[in-house]
Amino acid sequence: MASASNPIGIFDSGIGGLTVLKALREKLPHENFLYLGDTARIPYGTKSPQTIKKYLEQNLKYLAKQNVKAVVIACNSASSVAEEINFSLPIYDVISPGSRLAVEASKACRIGVIATKATVLSKSYVTHIQKIKPHVQVYQQASSLLVPLVEEGWDDDPVTNLIVYRYISPLLKENIDTLVLGCTHYPILKPAIRKVVGANVTLIDSGFALAKKLTEDLQQGVIMANSKDLTGEIRLLTTDSSDTFQANAKRIMLPLEIKPLEIVDIN
Ligand code: DGL
């Protein structure tokens, strides 16, 4: 039985989901969070829907065993195969809130999406966006090289700038006014992306959109809220040891101090 002090589970293949965790923590400082980075099996975004679904189910099962009170799928690639998943706890994906925010932002009704190959092939953003507003044009670009660059900590690097330019320039030719960062790793590249798109394209970060939805659900009692007198704790778990993860996590979560990583076996 879930209690109010149980953590909110959140997972991604690697450090990308920390961008979501950070947004959640800023809005919900009283909540406990248990983050799982499936670093032993990263990347997800180049794998088949069947494999990603298997990983998703294993991660959900593992987090449920840790007595979480809800789960956030802080991974677009896993969110793109999550539609028919059966789960006993409240579950949140990043594609639905990101799509809604993009539709609200786009005046020209021309939206670009950069994402992993798996997310692009699933057409999840196209489906969600056009369900909300059918005549919106959606232009997608698979940008698989960006995940390893972020995991390597190369977010401020000329090589990364060049690759970002190569991926995004075809979308700019379509006169998009809104760009969905359709992979939770990409908000870490926001400065590089902003340099390419200029000031007039709105960047959509689904972590922020999701934080709004989760806050509402906690206020409305869909999930039991932790006591406002407490400061929430964050535990970071990974499925493989990684010095780079620890160093990057420290940087991403600043000014928040993070505890040392715990390595877990989810099987
Ligand atoms: N950060 C994830 C996403 O949002 C997955 C990246 C990967 O493992 O390829 O899609």
N-C termini distance: 23 Å
Q: What is the approximate shape? A: globular
Alpha-carbon Rg, integer? 18 Å
Across the major sheet, the strand order is 4-3-1-2-9-10
CATH C-level of the largest domain: Alpha Beta
Give the ordered list of helices and strands. Answer: EHEHEHEHEHHEHHEHEHEHE
Percent range for β-strand residues = 15-25%
Largest sheet: 6 strands, parallel
How many domains? 2
* Total helical elements: 11
Annotated CATH topology of the largest domain = Rossmann fold
CATH architecture of the largest domain: 3-Layer(aba) Sandwich
Record field, number of beta strands: 10
Ligand list: D-glutamic acid
Percent helix range: 40-55%
The secondary structure category is alpha/beta
The poorly predicted ranges are none
Mean model confidence by pLDDT: 95
Describe the structure.
The longest helix has 17 residues, at 49-65. It is built from eleven helices and ten strands. It folds into two domains: 8-93 and 208-263, Rossmann fold; 95-206, Rossmann fold (3-Layer(aba) Sandwich), CATH 3.40.50. The chain starts with 7 loop residues before the first strand and ends with a strand. The chain is an alpha/beta fold and 267 residues long. Helix 3 links the parallel strand 3 (70-73) and strand 4. It is globular, with a radius of gyration of 18 Å. The strands form two sheets. It has a six-stranded parallel β-sheet, sandwiched between helices. D-glutamic acid is lined by residues 12-14, 16, 42-45, 75-77, 116, 119, 147, 183-185.
